[in-house]
Design brief:
The chain is mostly beta strands. The chain is built from no helices and 11 strands.
Length: about 210
């Protein structure tokens, strides 16, 4: 049976800056994978503002540095986020209101050590969201020997149809991908192809 979760997403008054935005405990999303016996690899936080959506994740327990390539965003270690600005859970193929973004702790710059963010297409989509310029998405990373932390910001201009006043519910899911430790997903695993099916995403209720 499919359980669809509705999660409170709290308002964040802070604006994005060069030092990023570090979200507190009130923004942390529970690890629902534990209900299926899956191990928690990372912590994940999400918040909203009229200007866009903030995401944070922190993964620990690594013995290798993150593997990130700007030419292989799908396979790279990092965070992927799916957002439906209309929370339409009765469709199985993405509409133009459905988005997919990736945030990597490395892979950018000439030496491939700078954090990287980009927009990805959703497979089998009926219609793609508006394209986003690479410099619109914001990302900051702290990489250590055994862990990394990512802080990302998705501006409203990157989210087709984003209007918290008129549409205070978002379809939402995430995946933290790691070649060494595996995947952590918000709810169902990749066996159900949540990457392309908005009916399998959860709901964020935007609370101010």
């Amino acid at each position: 049976m499919l359980f669809r979760y509705a999660i409170p997403c709290h308002y964040c008054e802070t604006s994005w800056s060069k030092s990023g935005v570090k979200l507190g405990d009130e923004y942390q999303v529970p690890h629902f994978g534990a209900l299926d016996g899956r191990q928690q690899l990372a912590n994940f936080w999400v918040a909203w503002h009229e200007d866009g959506i903030f995401v944070n994740c922190e993964l620990k327990g690594k013995q290798q540095l993150p593997w990130c390539r700007d030419s292989r965003l799908d396979d790279s270690d990092g965070l992927q986020v799916w957002i439906d600005t209309r929370a339409t859970h009765n469709i199985h193929r993405a509409s133009r209101f459905c988005h997919r973004f990736v945030f990597l702790p490395a892979g950018g710059g000439r030496r491939m050590v700078e954090p990287l963010s980009d927009q990805l297409l959703i497979e089998r989509a009926r219609e793609n969201a508006n394209p986003v310029r690479p410099d619109v998405l914001k990302v900051r990373a702290q990489v250590r020997k055994d862990s990394y932390r990512l802080e990302g910001f998705i501006p409203a201009e990157a989210l087709t149809g984003y209007d918290p006043g008129e549409h205070p519910r978002l379809g939402f899911t995430y995946a933290i991908v790691d070649r060494e430790l595996g995947w952590q997903t918000m709810t169902v695993g990749s066996g159900l192809r949540f990457q392309e099916d908005p009916s399998l995403w959860s709901t964020l209720e935007l609370i101010k």
